[in-house]
Amino acid sequence: MARKQSDYLAALLADDASEQGNAPFPAPAREAPLERARTTTLLGRESALARVASGEVRQVTQLLLDPTRVRIWPGNARTYAHLSEENCRELIDSIVAEGGQKVPAVVRRVDGDPDHDFEVIAGTRRHWSISWLRSHSYPDMQFVAQVAQLDDEAAFRLADLENRARADVSDLERARNYLDALKAHYGNHQTRMAERLKLSKGWLSKMLKVATIPDAVIAAFPSPGDVQLKPAYTLAQALDDKDMAKAITAMARQVAKEQAARREAGAPPSPATDVLRRLLDAPKALSGDERPEPYRYATKYGRTALTVQSANRQGVTIRLHAGSGADTDELMTALRDALAHLEATGKGLQR
């Protein structure tokens, strides 16, 4: 059944936390203020209407599909393997109560795959829920999808727009999805990516930084979904320092073993806040012999004139101390000595 592109976009962008909700039809007159507010919100998010205007979305057709013939597009942030009956229960119940899936997913056709005809761009939970229902007493349940013609970059932006309103898409999933997209669609140009997604460059930079946290460290948390942007960014910054990274990774392995033991014993895992504290405190537990002293330059009077506050891949932070008695020439000497020390210990700016 063909459908207008405006209807397709309204369904895609509907602010429905359960992904199922009401079909995208006009509300009664008494609800008009709410509908106007929702419309304003969608326009404020820049919406996908621009994609239609630019010709990126060239065709939209709604079909009833066999979910076994539909694969999941790897460019979507949501991890299909993490979906379960438990975290899709509300959506499953809603589909059963409504007599079928009311809000269509967005898919595109694929070529050269004998097992699949389409791939899901937006609507991964709907695909999983329909698949589950077909194997649990509802064999005739159909996967409702709108078929759109999209290139990979437009598909990524469409999926990202929908996922922004989904609380069950974790910060880590989105961060890693952004990092993959940065390389695949934007030539590693963060500014270009931020402009295309209508995101703050600073916020995007933090997300990309979080995406670099290694799996060995993520394994210490109760689940990847417990890794939240703000604390994770602090952790990612700490991992820039080689000595700190070594201590944090060692602690993460220890905590991961403890978490596994707790699960086997039927006990709840240690919460993410406790895990984060232990990881960030790990470098402090190093002995004096193992943890290098920060570089310090003192004048002939024994007063500190310069110290190296931090040295990581992003740069070196140096503090000049007031009241040391050092003049400009001596401070320049101290700076040269500090840079030479950093180079000798493998933390220089040339690494």
Can you describe this structure?
The chain has 351 residues and is of the alpha/beta class. Helices cover 45% and strands 12% of the residues. The chain contains 14 helices and eight strands. Strands 1-5-3-4-2 form a five-stranded mixed beta sheet. A hairpin with an 8-residue loop joins strand 3 (105-109) and strand 4. Helix 4 (89-98) packs across helix 5 and helix 7 packs across helix 9. It is elongated and about 85 Å long.
Percent of residues in beta strands: 5-15%
- Low-pLDDT runs of 5+ residues are 1-55
Radius of gyration: 26 Å
In N-to-C order, the SSE pattern is HHHEEHEEHEHHHHHHHHEEEH
**What structural class is derived from the secondary structure elements?**
alpha/beta
Any idea what the shape is?
elongated
Strands in their spatial order, largest beta sheet: 1-5-3-4-2
Helix content: 40-55%
Report the end-to-end length measured between terminal Cα atoms.
Answer: 59 Å
SS field, number of helical segments: 14
Question: What about the largest sheet?
Answer: 5 strands, mixed
- Residue-averaged pLDDT, rounded? 79
Q: How many E-type strands?
A: 8
Provide key terms for this protein.
three-stranded antiparallel beta sheet, disordered N terminus, alpha/beta, 351 residues, five-stranded mixed beta sheet, 45% helix, elongated, 8 strands
